[in-house]
TrEMBL record:
Matches recorded under InterPro entries: Glyas_Bleomycin-R_OHBP_Dase, Glyas_Fos-R_dOase_dom, GlyoxalaseI/FosfomycinResist, VOC_core
UniProt-listed CDD domains: VOC
Domain of life according to the entry: Bacteria
Signal sequence annotation: none
Biological source species: Sandaracinobacter neustonicus
Start and end residues of each VOC domain: 5-154
Protein name: VOC family protein
Length: 172
């Protein structure tokens, strides 16, 4: 079996109008498909580049948000989520656009971690400075639904040496 990447990820919106405004105006992702669902509700798709989409369902009677269970409660600091939940959604971005993205998000009133996070293989997993061991640089923020989003700029391709940990499991 061979897949060709992600077609779309489907999330749930608290308010579809607010979600459309954020994704089209702030993140500049075109709204490319809308569906009215039988029995009420909506399913909208946004083009996030590279042939992939971010989709949202909306129902008037959807269960309430569950930060710390189904979504991140606070980043940094409390970013654990429940088994089967979505922790965050990361979009590819060129490294030279990260600082401009921070300014754009802040100008739109979006709370954003005001630094570019350098992910590396150190014990802390992040570095204050760029160095050859950094494999991705990230900007983190949340959308109006409380979904943690990331703009991620890869600094190098992964290779066999990047897979060096034994998978953990539940003790029997």
């Amino acid at each position: 079996m061979r897949t060709n990447g992600i077609n779309h990820i489907a999330l749930v919106a608290r308010d579809m109008a607010e979600t459309v405004k954020f994704y089209t105006e702030v993140l500049q992702m075109p709204l490319v498909k809308t569906v009215e669902l039988p029995g009420g509700g909506q399913h909208f798709f946004f083009d996030c580049g590279g042939g992939s989409a971010v989709a949202f369902f909306w129902w008037a009677d959807a269960p309430p948000p569950a930060p710390g269970i189904a979504s991140v409660r606070k980043f940094p600091g409390d970013d654990r989520t429940a088994i089967g939940s979505m922790n965050h959604l990361a979009f590819h971005m060129d490294q030279d656009e990260l600082q401009a993205v921070i300014a754009r998000l802040q100008a739109a009133g979006v709370e954003v971690l005001p630094i570019v996070v350098n992910h590396d293989d150190s014990e802390a997993t992040v570095s204050a400075k760029m160095h050859p061991g950094v494999f991705v640089r990230s900007v983190y923020f949340t959308d109006p639904n409380g979904i943690m989003l990331e703009f991620a700029a890869s600094t190098r391709e992964f290779g066999p040496a990047d897979v060096r940990h034994v998978p953990a499991g539940v003790a029997a």
